[in-house]
Task: structure prediction
Amino acid sequence: MSQMFVQGETIAAIATAVVPQQGSVGIVRLSGAEAIAIARILFHAPGHQAWESHRILYGYVHHPQTQQLVDEALLLIMQLPRSYTREDVVEFHCHGGIMPVQQVLQLCIEQGARLAQPGEFTLRAFLNGRLDLTQAESIADLVGSRSPQAAQAALAGLQGKLAVPIRQLRATCLDILAEIEARIDFEEDLPPLDEATVVAQIEQVLAEVTRILATADQGELLRTGLKVAIVGRPNVGKSSLLNAWSRSDRAIVTELPGTTRDVVESQLVVGGIPVQVLDTAGIRPTLDQVEKIGVERSRRAAQSADLVLLTIDATTGWTTADQEIYEQVQHRPLILVINKTDLAPSDTVSFPNSINHSVTTAAAHNQGIEGLEKAILQAVHTDKLKAADLDLAINQRQAAALTRAKLSLQQVQETITQQLPLDFWTIDLRGAIQALGEITGEEVTESVLDRIFSRFCIGK
Result:
């Protein structure tokens, strides 16, 4: 990352999605020492518009040599330090589509700007002290959020709801370390160390670290969501279930078995959790080569899913074919869906005692969906996520650092219990301080920055 970031070097990128014939506005963003100078070369603002910070200018982008008109646009000027990167930033707000923004970007590069790498604008904001590392990661989470709850958690992180307690914990550890090291260096000049106070402080820090660490699973669910596969033999109502659940006609529904030949996907939100629902082809022996491919894809989808909805027909009950499918997916978290209960009572259907979760539905009449969603939340132990404190929802990197901090603090406790010399106390205490510093970026390596910002989109 240090090779990527050159102080004063001007970078440029398209900051909006480029989709043919879609989108009314496309933005080209520049950041760096030459950003305003490049804008002055390319942009003509008619009349007496003032080139001042945090003003919007109206005008035209021209080719500097041929004077050919490239686009009619708006220009935003944000001089340092009052910008996203704390560098001079300008944005060309062009007409949407492909050609206007690409032409403007090319002109910026011809005038000396460099094409930005993924996440480089946010990296500069971090390196220039505008954001800490948790806030930078929250920006990526906000851009990629797939539910209102995920967006709210990302906004909380952007506001420093995670960074503040982490910094406080690290400050407490630094204070403890300073007290211990003072006793080591100036033992004869200072009163004895108050061991009881130190023990109490470490216990408090450890308890808070443990509390924050417990939000890792919730954070992962909010960010990545849940993959759910609807499986079963043909004509049990899998596609009807998907259509009723997603309130759409994503899947073709007929009375003919084997209608679904491939995996059909739908994106839903259940209890604040993004859910990717996979409607799979009916699993059965077949000589049809196309259907055979669909059946194999169904098996792979079931193996990769976080949760399987094994769907059976209430009118036929549990069959040998259902048993065979169950034996293939029983090692996955599973809910039995007894469908078509409008045609037959569900209480007459028997199924293996090893199935712990079951629901009844009449998908053709949109019945039972609410019960299905409740069962899904219970099956994955996330039904209390709605009431969780979304101000703290850590990601995998933060969880790994907190785990190291927790182990170091526990080792400090063990060292104190064994009455080892003070020098031993400081070793693991420094480990905890370093791990906590990695979360906010106060102690971070170049390789960590590479991993974090490489996941960002170009232009952010």
The chain is about 45% helix and 15% strand.
